[in-house]
């Protein structure tokens, strides 16, 4: 009886820890993260002083009126953004991760059984394929999947019709847990928007619409330096993308409001990062005049707008689109650009990717390493963006279905390894990093679910 | 249950190794930490807390005070308690741990000394130990309340006062007032932590540069 009690309390403690986030190995992470954060702040400050643009500025009334009129077509604006540069890009972040070291870890010169041949040198626990098979059991060969069993050759009576019927039932019951279980096999296109809203607990109440309108007012009243960074990012990434350029205006409407949303500050309770701080001019050091900048504490990096772009296919009403994006960010996306030891954090995902490749495709891994093309250098940008902008949108949405269903980002690392496995034959023939990048440059023709299924369940190990 | 910290003296760690320390390669995988309680009488152990630093398994032996004639013996009260599920990886390596009386294999009634045996079989870590070790005994029980007699034995019901004309029933009014009072108490007690959503200070958001601290 006592044994059960202590087992249960241990399990509860573990669950609480998972809910609270990661167990941060204090020294190491704080040092690495602290110096990285300082770099970002320095970069932003220097942009501010060089261009003589204030971090924040109250708009004059005329400008406010103009912006309000143009709210639905901010994309037509062509401000001069040539002097702005993104604060950081994913490859800068990768360099920080590569240099993470544990001072208590034997990093000797001699090769031992645990030498990390990849780029990540931190000994976090990652799953191997048998454990992943257990975890992602619904992706198995004997279970129907959308993305595989709804292709034109398969008669819909075999799987698709029944699956759609169950989905409608789940929506009618408004059962969030059932929806999460259901979506592991993929979501029918017609039901996806409602299913995601159900899983993320988003219902458009009048208060939510009012809250969004309040944020919009904040955007109109104050102009932030971060806005220009957002503009620049959207122009560089989403506007140039064949699938997403039509949503440019939506992206501004969501991201500008996102920067002003102080409720996002709550996620720093379980995020190892901390929001940048500043003081009202003339009141340096006085705590009553300390504020966060930007108000939501999140400084966008190059490619940030790609987190929002795929959602525009599902939601057309700005306040609902906004809520869905905000919830996805504070549940999942923030882990992709902050350092922690959480199993869904970017460090663990990188290590999982490298370990899978090294264990199950050792020849390919060795070959790429020899030619100076460490696989993580190519796959990092896919994982940081959750494959947004690299896959075709229908495939991306099927992938994000599984992220929601399994409440974990590990599937991104598994897909990255599966892509390498798929193109292994071509990759074995390349002789340089540039050539390897070229082989893996275009992922838009890939079908995500067959790749995952083959890699996890049908590869002879 | 309240707990009281017992002042303890933690002796330095002793590494156990086979063979000569100087000539053998590799680091010791077993460390022993002795914990004595110099100024305290034998007490009942309630809880042990510490911060782990890369120790994989922990065993604890205890020496208890017995009656006059039998010498005190060492007894194992915790055997191979797992702190790190995978000794080669980070999980559990720097966690805060609490061990309670009911997890121990033997009675912890009259503790004289403790001996912690730390094991770390993986050769990957440069060192391992436990930090911030604290030992607790049971705190004093809260004094039992004695209720005044009239509260625990209410008197017989009084005759209800005849209702005056035109006035509402007093017992109903009193119960409604009670409910209202309970509501106001609830609202006063719960501090709403919902942010108002303002990010500026009095309408002003004119900032300096970002601060580095």
The poorly predicted ranges of chain B are none
Q: How big a fraction of the residues of chain B is strand?
A: 25-35%
Give helix and strand order of chain A, one letter per element, not per position: HHEHHHHHHHEHHEEHHHHHHHHH
State the helical fraction of chain A: 40-55%
What structural class should be given to the helix and strand makeup of chain B?
Answer: mainly beta
Provide a descriptive summary of the structure in words:
The complex is a heterodimer of chains A (461) and B (213). Chain A has 461 residues and is mostly helical. Chain A is 52% helix and 3% strand. Chain A contains 20 helices and four strands. A two-stranded antiparallel sheet of chain A has the order 1-2. Mean pLDDT of chain A is 88; it is low at 17-24. Chain B is mostly beta strands and 213 residues long. In chain B, strands 2, 3, 4, 6, 7 and 9 form a six-stranded antiparallel beta sheet that branches. The two termini of chain B are 40 Å apart. The model of chain B has no long low-confidence stretch (mean pLDDT 82). Chain A binds chain B through residues 2, 5-6, 23, 25-26, 38, 41-42, 44-45, 48-49, 54-58, 102-106, 112, 114, 122-125, 211, 214, 218, 222, 260-263, 265, 276-281, 284, 288-289, 291-293, 295, 341, and chain B through 53-54, 85-86, 88-95, 100, 102-103, 123-128, 195, 197-201, 204-213. Chain A: Pfam families: RabGAP-TBC. Chain A: Residues 186-407 form the Rab-GAP TBC domain. Chain A: This is TBC1 domain family member 19. Chain A: It comes from Prolemur simus (Greater bamboo lemur).
